[in-house]
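One such given next:
>
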Amino acid sequence: MLLDDQLFSLLLGAISEHRLPPGTRLPEETLSKIFKVSRERMRKVLLRLSETRCVQLTPNVGARVAAPTLQEVEDLFQTRLLIETETVKLAAQKWTEPQMHALRAHLQEEEQARVQHNLPEQVRLTGLFHIKIAEMAGNAFLTRFITELVWHTALAVSLYGLSRTSECTELEHQDLLDAIQNRNVQEAIDIMREHLEHVQEGLGDEPRTFEKVNLQEVLAPLVAQFQAHELQN
C-alpha cells in the first residue's frame, strides 16, 4: 500500500470508528505536523477524504468531519435497504465455504469486542460484516458502494447515537448468516431489511454535541502505525 493510501485509510478509519466525531476540525497544518508529512501531501489526502463525503472541505475554512443531516440519514438508509436486500440475495446464492468460515470467525471477533467494551472495534467489525456480505455476492461494484454506505452509517451513529444494544445487532448478524448459509433467500432478505430498519429506528432525533478533540492525543496510535508502515517502505 502506498504511503498516501495508508494515511487516507488511517484517517478514514479514525472517522468511521468514532475516534474523530462529526464536526471535528481537521487543520491541514496540524495534521501534517502530527504525521510528519508535507502540507501538500496532507492536502491531497484531505481532498480524497472529501470525495468520500466523510470530510467536508470549505474554502477559507478548511476541513472538518462531515455531520449528516436527518434527511441525509433518511436517504442513506433508504439506499441501504434497496441495495443490501438485493446484495444478500446474491450472497445466499453464491457464498463459498471459505467465505462462510471467515464470517463465522468474524462473528466471534464481534462478540469479543462487545465483551471487552471496545467500542471502536465494535463499530469497525459491525460495518465490516456488511462489507463481507457484499463480497459474498461477488460484485466488486456492490462491495465498493456498500463500503461507502457503511462509512456514512458510522457517521450517522456517531452524530445521533444508537439506543439499541450491540447484543441485538450481533444476534441479527447471526440470524442473517444462518439464513445465508441455508440458502434461504427470502429469509435472508427479510432479516436484512429488519436489521437495517432497527438500526435506523435506534438513532436519535437530535445531533449530539462533542467536546473538542485533542488531535495529537487521539491520533497518536495511528501515527505509530503510519511511521511503522513508512519504515517498511
